[in-house]
Amino acid sequence: MTRDLLKLAGQPVIIGAGIAGLMTALRLAPQPVILLSKGRLGAESSSVWAQGGLAASMGTDDSPSLHLDDTLAAGDGLCDREAAARITAAAPAAIEALCRLGVRFDRMPDGALALGLEAAHGRRRIVHAAGDGTGREIVRALAAAARATPSITVLEGFEARRLLVEDGVLRGVLVAGPRGGATLPTNRVVIATGGIGGLFTQTTNPDGSFGQGLALAARAGAQLADLEFIQFHPTALAGPHRPAPLISEAVRGEGALLVDETGDRFLAGEPGAELASRDIVARGVWRRLSAGHATFLDARVKPGAHFAEHFPVITAACRAAGIDPATQLIPIQPAVHYHMGGIAVDASGRSSVPGLWACGEAAATGLHGANRLASNSLLEAVVCAGWVAQSVAGADAGRSVRPREIGLPCASDPSSLRAILSRGLGVLRDGRGLEEMIRMLLPIAHSRGPAADPALTGLIMAVAAWRRQESRGAHWRTDFPMRDAIPRRSVLCLDEALSTARDLSPIDQPLIA
Questions:
Q1: Which of 124, 140, 380, 398 is deepest in the core (most CB within 10 A)?
Q2: Is domain 236-336 given the CATH code 1.20.140.10 in the classification?
């Protein structure tokens, strides 16, 4: 450990520098805090890619209770009602806080916030910035604020490889930096690492979002919740691009239609049609593709000639692929977009491991249930960051104890696993495919190679999906198409997942730490 890092011993450490991590660090000020960013601050997070915006009841015809109703309906019986009510009620104040931090939201000529409509929302309540560049604008403002805050030490180019836990007590974080491995002694850590899309072949997430926060927490003994619920965005731009450019739900909110190559509106008979909840639309698109058809978004009439004005980022992505979205059909396909599951946390973001918190997509607060309501994710990150920061600030810093030294695990690379996870944990699943996936991932998770942590994350997710023998929200089992009468959230720890995996596999060996 270098002398400069030694000076930081005992400070809280936030792993991840997207909206959740940045906002937590800012809310902790003036308490000193360390913010770890794998790359340049604000450059690699999923937050930058977020197009739609933040859901908040800002309109005169809206209210937090209506926002809550839509959230619970989309969550298909699995939302934690108390958590959802608390977060949706805090949404308007969160928008005001972001404005004070310099976020430039889109406004009407009279200065009022411009509010968009997205699927499964009963009101226009999507607050956006730069049209479809909301995530980029929020990260810009928060990153600038973080750099200007003396209490925040930003360590760019640093990646957390292990949480160091001794006798059930969090002692530090083992990191890899520009000069090699180092240990940051601390008993307060916040995981804000984003999602899991990098584990899959088709995703709208950056490759660096492959569930590393879940692997860190699982190896530390934390409970994980609702891991089987993976949201596929139904309208990613089809093609060879990685990540797949996202065609925001807001495009359908402005009137665009889903059609196949014959012009058939194949979702017209569904309640809500193109604006049904994401799981319904994703399954409809997937089934159409599986039947041998091509699927498109038709925006030629609505928003038509105004497409580029409303959606400049999407327009640029389409034109890069040789498509004019105002005059041509946009080829689309489902892609992994968001993980409703994550590290199980309480109302303050505390995990089951003392000293470990989680915020943002890496956390399972209970807001999203089985199927996230559009634009509730950035909202959750901003709102919950304040509660996490308050909890971390109130925790006893104690005396910093240097943990035992361990070898630095190699950097993770999920690329060899993407086909396995995409096949087993796709839009439609079945028990046989999940069992095959579990048997394939178990020996890789036991290895010391670059795929070990990604395999471990995928394994726990697969076990959670195998154990849920029903179809609900984003989890659809073709061998169990009915929904259970009594909704239940799933909670799983690493030992339980490994026990189940070994029961399904002939391999039996100790997990390598």
A1: 380
A2: no
